[in-house]
Amino acid sequence: MNVLTSDWNSSKAQLVFVRTQVFIIEQGIPPEDEWDEQDQDAVHFVSFGTTAVPTGVCRLLADGHIGRLAVLPAYRQQGYASMLLRKAIQVAREMGIKKVFLDAQVEAQAFYEKHNFSSDGKVFLDATKLHVHMEREI
Q: Which of 4, 66, 93, 120 is deepest in the core (most CB within 10 A)?
């Protein structure tokens, strides 16, 4: 298992593949809510197992916003999401960012709490899914 730090142009095929499978097909998020101009400037992360098939993805924006964390169903509960999140936090720290934040789907809140993120508890709707804002100092 490893995580590649990349950019949109270098890893577009893998990023589009995983996010389409997880967010658009599995979760039913409209494509126009999934793709945005921030992908071009973000630092992207792609996880791999023992093959060239990506297992998951994540992105980090310059302001410390971590997002678009997705792991393909066959690879869940195997540590890929934690590995991606830890790598995003490490890179944020290297960039001099002091606090990272994200908008977690409510179902994933406990996962982020295990990684020392805390929430204000206010639930909101984003891209047809209930989310909660979470952050942590790094």
A: 66
Q: Give the C-alpha separation, 80 to 48, whole Å.
A: 8
Distance CA 85, CA 115 (A): 8
Average pLDDT for the chain: 96
The pLDDT of residue 76 is: 97
d(CA 109, CA 122): 12
Give the integer Cα–Cα distance in Å for 57 and 44.
Answer: 7
Q: Do 4 and 11 contact (CB within 8 A), yes or no?
A: yes
The three-state (H, E, C) secondary structure of 24-90, written as one string: HHHCCCCHHHHCCHHHHCCEEEEEECCCCCEEEEEEECCCCEEEEEEECHHHCCCCHHHHHHHHHHH
